[in-house]
DNA sequence: GTAGGGTTAG
């Protein structure tokens, strides 16, 4: 009000001569300032500097425009120097300088200018906050961003829509979607502009919340806000991510109507969307119709062709890019390299020529390209080449490590690499590497390690991912921790075939046949089609629970309902079941009916059945085939020799043992291990290497005493042959699994289950002892042997004494 | 008339 009055006053008074003169100068200055601004905007900084130096008179605007010219072209020290010399500094001068540092990602400098500004008594405003927030967003500086958020609340700038937009974007880019959502939802609806909507949408889309992104797009239009060239490239990837082609087509229609059709960002996103929705034809046609050869659009199509397995098409696109003299970039090459990761060996020649091209063109120094090279070599099993590329990389990121970890054939090596990645610092695991490491932990049955990876993943704040959740379900079942597997399973919003199958197989291997079949029923009710693996789980469950009729029914439905040809694994389960339930003839009949070549698993089942039924002839056939299939396996020798002994054919038994010796085949030594406090404690039979050996042996003695009182009788048929009775009993007492359980009783806290893993099948005497131990000590003992899990609780075992 | 906020390709 005051200012208005003052202005009016000036306007009504008669202008003096001096005033007219100064007005003329001002108008001259004004037009030069505008010229300076134009030069700055078009990036002609040197010309701007020359003009600035020549100007006889300068005002605030002149100085600020020149600071902007330097600042936005990255000449930060020039900007700073000019800022220092500027006699008419104002808030805009500060903002211009800070914005330059923010755009240049000089975060320390930018933030210290931000604080310095305030120390010098100059308050920041909505523009300052906007710049700094954008920098926090693009660098993922969550803590700084939160600090700035605090400033906006204290100074009430959080009512400025530009600042709010910056906050939403910052939280979105720092993967804090719920914070972004909270700010978005609590602001008055009428204040949201299209930047607000687009920022929220982008937050959803980038963080894997595709459906929410699509919903956000609909709400935006419903509220009457027009989407623009920024909105479309954000919503389209969300449609692609969930294969929502119909929604994608609607968005496409909206684009055509809105006139953003020719925008290169929009167009490339449309092509990518169709390609992701497996409509390569439309994608190809759109690419053909484009007025310019846009490398991004071509790249998206190459990527999708690779993903859909059309390698030839991808390579031909790549060739055509060459022919059209398009600039191949660091995004084209990784997709092309992906073609070779899983291709035939003949293709490696082309792969080598692409690698040469990369070296020649200097693209080897691009992270994306090197990552793809590491990935390709690792997946092809040429780890030395992969490591060579990896070690030469200056800046390794989580993708580089993932390529190395996932491609590695050895699980142990994979975990070591993962630990190394964590130890070298600065790199936090993402969903891809988490899923991969969880699978490796599962294969090695490292529950504690898997749990740590799980905890880390929760803390990381990544949204739910199907592949991580599936790996978790699988890891927990493979480590015998069904409660945890169930907890993850029931927390999952979407489940796929892999999820259900992991649970079905998991229950089966943990002796929970009923739950396994129940889960199968639920899966079918949920409209999920079973596959080859699902049926292995189901038949395994049936065979271990003696459910002959059910097994036959499932086996039939495999072929008749789901058109899946049964494989050797399925036959092995059924043969095992018949053998065990006493129907040897059926087992043999099934063997002869097999459409596929029987493998070692099938012959092992036949051998076990023959042994149980004393069918030496079939046993001989099975054992001999097994000796050929697995020349280093001692099992067929031992089992057949035992069958001879049992039939009183001692000489043949001895011959077989001699043959075994002459072929240098020995029984794989039994080994049991317990995981504890980040260490694996392993025990062999009569092992005396452990640090707490004395304690462990006296615990074994106590154990044996207590369980004998409870009714346990040692079964010396499982002991070595050439000892007297007492020696045999002692030998039994110090079997690896008994040492492991004794250690577990000493080291595992009361109430927690003792988890043991054994490389071979558990010995019959140990199995019986474990049952007693679980009762006498009131402990849940979980023993995973080479075949399945045994949950010993209160004197009985989940396997129903069959393994 | 000077300063801030949203976008595509692995």
TrEMBL record:
PPR repeat residue intervals = 59-89, 90-124, 193-227, 294-328, 366-400, 496-530
Q: Which InterPro entries match?
A: DYW_dom, E_motif, PPR_At4g14850-like_plant, PPR_rpt, TPR-like_helical_dom_sf
Q: Which N-terminal residues, if any, form the signal peptide?
A: none
**Residues annotated as domain DYW:** 711-803
The alphabetized UniProt keywords are: Repeat
Pfam families listed in its UniProt record: DYW_deaminase, E_motif, PPR, PPR_2
The record's comment on protein family reads: Belongs to the PPR family. PCMP-H subfamily.
Protein name, entry field: DYW domain-containing protein
């Amino acid at each position: 009000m005051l200012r208005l009055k003052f202005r009016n006053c000036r306007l009504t008074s008669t202008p003096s001569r001096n005033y007219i003169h100064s007005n003329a100068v001002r108008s001259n200055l004004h037009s030069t300032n505008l010229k300076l601004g134009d030069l700055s905007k078009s990036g002609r900084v040197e010309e701007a500097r020359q003009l600035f130096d020549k100007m006889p008179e300068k005002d605030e605007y002149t100085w600020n425009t020149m600071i902007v010219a330097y600042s936005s072209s990255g000449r930060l020290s020039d900007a700073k120097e000019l800022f220092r010399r500027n006699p008419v500094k104002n808030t805009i001068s500060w903002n211009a300088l800070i914005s330059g540092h923010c755009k240049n990602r000089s975060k320390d400098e930018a933030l210290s200018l931000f604080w310095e500004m305030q120390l010098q008594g100059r308050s920041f405003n909505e523009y300052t906050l906007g710049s700094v927030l954008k920098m926090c967003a693009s660098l993922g500086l969550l803590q700084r961003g939160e600090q700035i958020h605090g400033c906006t609340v204290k100074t009430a700038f959080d009512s400025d829509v530009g600042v709010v937009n910056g906050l939403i974007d910052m939280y979105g880019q720092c993967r804090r979607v719920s914070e972004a959502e909270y700010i978005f939802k609590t602001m008055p609806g009428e204040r949201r502009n299209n930047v607000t909507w687009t920022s929220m949408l982008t937050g959803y889309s980038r963080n894997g919340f595709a459906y929410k992104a699509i919903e956000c797009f609909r709400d935006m239009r419903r509220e009457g806000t027009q989407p623009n060239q920024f909105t479309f490239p954000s919503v389209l990837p969300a449609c692609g991510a969930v294969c929502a082609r119909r929604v994608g087509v609607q968005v496409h229609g909206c684009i055509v109507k809105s006139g953003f059709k020719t925008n290169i960002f929009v167009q490339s996103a449309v092509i990518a969307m169709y390609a992701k929705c497996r409509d390569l034809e439309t994608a190809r046609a759109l690419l053909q119709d484009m007025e310019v050869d846009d490398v991004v659009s071509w790249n998206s199509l190459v990527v999708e062709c690779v993903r859909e397995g059309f390698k030839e098409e991808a390579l031909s696109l790549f060739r055509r890019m060459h022919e059209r003299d398009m600039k191949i970039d660091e995004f084209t090459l990784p997709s092309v390299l992906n073609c070779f990761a899983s291709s035939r060996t003949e293709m490696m020649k082309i792969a080598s020529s692409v690698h040469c091209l990369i070296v020649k063109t200097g693209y080897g120094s691009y992270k994306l390209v090197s990552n793809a090279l590491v990935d390709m070599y690792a997946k092809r099993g040429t780890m030395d080449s992969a490591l060579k590329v990896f070690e030469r990389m200056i800046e390794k990121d989580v993708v580089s490590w993932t390529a190395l970890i996932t491609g590695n054939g050895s699980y142990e090596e994979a975990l070591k690499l993962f630990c190394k990645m964590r130890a070298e610092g600065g790199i936090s695991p993402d969903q891809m590497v988490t899923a991969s490491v969880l699978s490796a932990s599962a294969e090695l049955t490292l529950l504690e390690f898997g749990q740590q990876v799980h905890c880390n993943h929760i803390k990381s704040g990544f949204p739910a991912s199907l592949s991580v959740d599936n790996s978790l379900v699988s890891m927990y079942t493979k480590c015998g921790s069904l409660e945890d597997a169930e907890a993850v399973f029931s927390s999952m919003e979407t489940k796929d075939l892999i999820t259900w199958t992991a649970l079905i197989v998991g229950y089966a291997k943990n002796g929970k046949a009923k739950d396994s079949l129940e889960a199968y029923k639920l899966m079918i009710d949920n409209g999920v089609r079973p596959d080859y693996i699902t049926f292995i789980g189901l038949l395994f469950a049936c065979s271990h629970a003696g459910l002959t009729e059910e097994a036959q029914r499932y086996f039939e439905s495999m072929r008749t309902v789901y058109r899946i040809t049964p494989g050797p694994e399925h036959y092995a389960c059924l043969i095992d079941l018949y053998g065990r339930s006493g129907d040897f003839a059926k087992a043999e009949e099934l063997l002869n009916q097999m459409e596929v070549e029987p493998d070692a698993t099938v012959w092992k089942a036949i051998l076990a059945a023959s042994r149980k039924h004393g069918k030496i002839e079939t046993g001989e056939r099975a054992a001999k085939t097994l000796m050929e299939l697995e020349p280093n396996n001692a099992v067929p020798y031992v089992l057949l020799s035992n069958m001879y002994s049992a039939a009183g054919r001692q000489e043949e038994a001895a011959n077989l043992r001699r043959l075994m010796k002459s072929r240098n085949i020995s029984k794989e030594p039994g080994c049991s291990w317990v995981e504890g406090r980040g260490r694996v404690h392993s025990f062999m039979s009569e092992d005396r290497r452990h640090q707490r050996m004395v304690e462990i042996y006296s615990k074994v003695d106590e154990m044996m005493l207590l369980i004998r009182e409870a009714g346990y009788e040692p079964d010396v048929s499982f002991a070595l042959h050439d000892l007297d009775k007492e020696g045999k009993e002692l030998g039994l007492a110090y079997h690896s699994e008994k040492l492991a359980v004794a250690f577990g009783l000493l080291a595992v806290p009361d109430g927690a289950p003792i988890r043991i893993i054994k490389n071979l099948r558990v010995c019959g005497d140990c199995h019986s002892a474990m049952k007693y131990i679980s009762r006498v000590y009131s402990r849940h003992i979980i023993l995973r042997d080479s075949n399945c899990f045994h949950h010993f609780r209160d004197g009985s075992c989940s396997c129903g004494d069959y393994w």
